[in-house]
Predict the 3D structure of the following.
Amino acid sequence: MFWKVLAGVVAVWLLFVLLGVILKGLFWLVTVAVIAAGVYLLVKMFSDSSDETAGRGR
């Protein structure tokens, strides 16, 4: 019984370690993506709105 509990604890610990490594690796990717999306939305918001219907066939 002791070994089953120990194996369960080790399995959960390994799961948390792997999850931490994955999240740490993805943190900078997500940060860059959020900044890029913010810059895109700011440029779109401040761009000239008269070109809004240029590609819609009107």
Notes: The chain has a mean pLDDT of 87. Residues 2-46 form the longest helix (45 residues). The chain is about 80% helix and 0% strand.
